[in-house]
Design brief:
Blueprint (H helix, E strand, L loop, with lengths): L1 H17 L3 E5 L3 H5 L4 E4 L3 E4 L3 H4 L4 H28 L6 E2 L2 H10 L12 H8 L3 E9 L6 E2 L2 E2 L1 H5 L4 E11 L5 E11 L5 H12 L9
Parallel strand pairs: 2-4, 2-5, 3-5
Antiparallel strand pairs: 1-9, 5-8, 6-7, 8-9
């Protein structure tokens, strides 16, 4: 139990240091490369969920893995929704592939959330049939799912625990796997934040610097 508490505290400290800070990288040729892009896709994010020791004692490794898979797909859908909204408003220069289509293509190729990070971004983009792929990492101590097994996530709020999340998002060019843009941000809240809101807050900060978005 001490080991789990140390992990939780280290995660809390790491995210607390990142809270409010934006780390941003943009390829100098992003605009020129993106000009020829027509379709992009996003894949489920690699996700780590950190729980309290008493919560860890109530679930199996398989349940935790399932929770993390659900979180990763939730972030994928939230990013898709952000791009789709701008696409429908005529403020996006590319088309965003539906997650269901992307995930079906990955599954047909034998690529799963457990192994797809062993493939290059260029290979994933080729499988998906798109010009660029959006992927990344997400870490949280407040899962979106209300209850998994015997875990009641709302109990965290009753203990006055700060809900923390770190999201790292990257976009890679399909042709050569070149990193086009990458940004990371830590988010803290006193109440449970839905993953859609986390993505909205992040993308709002960088939308003006995204080559795909029209101002």
């Amino acid at each position: 139990m001490k080991r789990f508490m140390c992990v939780f505290l280290l995660t809390f400290m790491m995210v607390s240091q990142l809270w409010g800070q934006m780390q941003f990288f943009k390829n100098a040729d992003f605009e020129n490369i993106a000009y020829a892009h027509e379709t992009i896709a996003t894949v489920p994010f690699l996700t780590k969920v950190t729980l309290l020791p008493d919560q860890m004692d109530t679930i199996s490794g398989q349940q935790l893995a399932s929770m993390e898979k659900t979180e990763g797909e939730s972030i994928q859908k939230a990013i898709y929704s952000w791009f789709l909204q701008r696409q429908e408003n005529g403020k996006l220069s590319v088309t965003i592939q539906e997650p269901a289509i992307s995930n079906a293509k990955l599954k047909a190729a034998g690529i799963t959330p457990e192994n797809y990070y062993s493939y290059s971004p260029a290979h994933l983009a080729h499988i998906l049939g798109v010009d660029a792929v959006v992927m990344g990492y997400y870490e949280t101590n407040q899962p979106k799912a209300g209850q998994v097994g015997n875990i009641d996530c709302e109990s965290r709020n009753k203990q006055n625990l700060t809900n923390l999340a770190v999201i790292n998002l990257s976009i890679f060019n399909a042709e050569d796997g070149e990193l086009l843009v990458q940004f990371q941000n830590g988010i803290a809240a006193n109440q449970e934040s839905m993953n859609e809101e986390i993505v909205q807050a992040l993308m709002k900060k960088v939308s003006k610097r995204m080559a795909y978005t029209k101002i």
